Structure prediction request, 448 residues.
Amino acid sequence: MPQVLFTAHLRRWAPPSPVEAAGDTVAAALDQVFAQHPLLETYVLDDQRRLRRHIALFVDGERARLADPVGPDARIAVLQALSGG
Amino acid sequence: MISPLLVGTRKGLFVLEADATDQWTIRRHAFAGIPVTITALDPRDRTLYAGLNHGHFGVKLHRSEDLGASWTELPAPAFPAGFPADGDGKLAPTVAMLWSLEPGAGPGELWAGTIPGALFHSTDRGDTWRLVDSLWHEDARRLWFGGGYDAPGIHSILPDPRDRRRLLLGVSCGGVWLSPDAGVHWEIGGAGLVAAYMPEERQEDLAVQDPHRIARCAGAPERVWMQHHSGAFRSDDGGRNWIRLSGLPLSDFGFAVAAHPSDPDVAWFVPAESDENRIPTSGRLGVTRTRDGGRSFERFEEGLPAPPAFDLVYRHGLAVAPDGRRLAMGSTTGGLWTSADGGESWRLADARLPPIASLQFAV
Prediction:
């Protein structure tokens, strides 16, 4: 099952990282986590459920997008992009 | 007892209190490091609301029942997922800033104005929010554009104290909007406003006006004051018609305006040099006051920094207490000053603050 790691900046809203989350895309895995942590979703996604502009996603160390597929051993990282200040 | 001051800054919310000698100091600091764009205190149940704008994590809303000692996070106003794009070639909207927050008519009723220019409504103390579709679907909204920010925004929400269902909105840049029935129907006000930044044939177009801030006299609610992008204006009929004021010392450009709570002839402005030079004229920070309905003006600088000063006072950076004598003013340089004599002299608070977006007395 993919593992999701959230930046320490989100520790007040996110479960202890990494957390296991089923899903075959980045979005599906994140949705699994958001189902248990609804406020967290609003910190990562905007009103239209797009990735917030200054959040950076990585899968196994490579920049990724929400729609990208993930394998069962993927490590998804949700980080704070430096572009946001 | 002097009411505390609630100050929203680039680095959190500060609560300041005055001692017996009128010296203001920081008593509380909430949301350290996070921009606080607006606050509202509902006088009916003493609930405090704070709008945040995390650089990375979006717009948030928090509520406090103990004047900022503890907070509960609420869902922030948001466009429904799947909401249609706002015109060709644009993305579907997402709330980018909470720019105004105001108690409504009923218990627990709140209005929120955002960038992009949308009005949201809550009837349950902010637990849930609904977009006010009627305003969003006004045809003239297509003429709105950003003023200072990429998208238009609603920065002033002024319920009529005689009937708080009657609303007056200020939109940068989208003019003055009036609703007689808590947002069911809308009409555009603003006749007499002139937008010098538009081509000549469009300067009196109501839907492109840029009221920087609108303030209403609580005791005489038909009297409304405006600091517009292109001058200072007064309305005697609740925002439908406006008269441009002349004779303001140094400049009639600026962002903030405050109305006396009971005397309809008294208002304050904080001028900056011009729209192309948003610093105090000749480096002299000062406050402009009228006491005769805008026929004449006085300028005060006592206690404000010696030139050259670069302080700009934003839309929500000037507040007046219910007595009409005590004022507070906060700047983009983090200066916070108070006055106990109707703005004639000022005193720097004992606090080095981050850039100030908003302030209000906790009354």
Notes: The domain at 5-361 of chain B is CATH 2.130.10.10 (Methylamine Dehydrogenase; Chain H). Residues 238 and 321 of chain B are 21 Å apart (CA to CA). Chain B has one helix and 28 strands. Chain B touches chain A at residues 54-58, 60, 73, 75-76, 78-83, 91-95 (CB under 8 Å).
